[in-house]
Amino acid sequence: MSTKSKYWLTLSGLLAAVVLTVGLAPVPLVFVLGGALVIGFLAAGVLYGQFQKDAIRSGALAAPFPLLLAIVAFNVSLLLRGSELAFFLVPVVAAALFATCYVWSIKHGPYAQPRSTNTPT
Amino acid sequence: MSLIEASPKTLAYLKSFKGLDVNEQISGLAASMPTEPLSGFTGLVEAGAIEFKVKTIKNGWYSTEMIVHEQPLVQTRDLGSLPRCPSAWAAFWAWFAVNVTTCGAFAPFPVAAFACAAGFAVGGAIIDFNRGC
Question: Dihedrals φ, ψ of B80, to 5°?
């Protein structure tokens, strides 16, 4: 599996985890897990060497489709939060977001080749 | 009084006080509480949720045992965080719009944009959109 695939697999997994956390986790835990996931996204960017100013400024890394999809999925899980249907629908939304983002990334996922040698291979 | 007379089990309870005038019993019970609680009371007695056993100890003295039977939980549709009135939906859509515009500004860098969206999602868990309902 290429580094790009691993990167987008990581991001897709984190996005699905956010959906599960927001939709199912009780109040104190949702903040702990949510905070960890926010840090997780940034950590993924660092680990895969994506913090590259030139690439970011040029817009080469832009991914509006999965971003909009993620925002919609997060808000759907917010609406489902606390309802009887949450235990059934939230995992479905999470799985759908994971699959859609990962499949999209295969052809369209932006990825900047890391300049640092410390990236995972 | 018509509520009490329409409930055979409530009437049976009142009649079990041997030696007392049942019409006075009915009047007394009807006067003891407003219509809505009385309606609930007769409903519970009729449904068997509350059962009374009256024993005559001696002339004019009675022993009353009230038994409350376990009832199956009434299953209500719990809507959770789902907005339940127009103002709640307006608050939700406002939140969604702020979410999209703020995190959309980070679109050139997906990692930061996703982190922003996750932060908004977690923050949305604090907000009670139905507060204004």
Answer: 60, -130
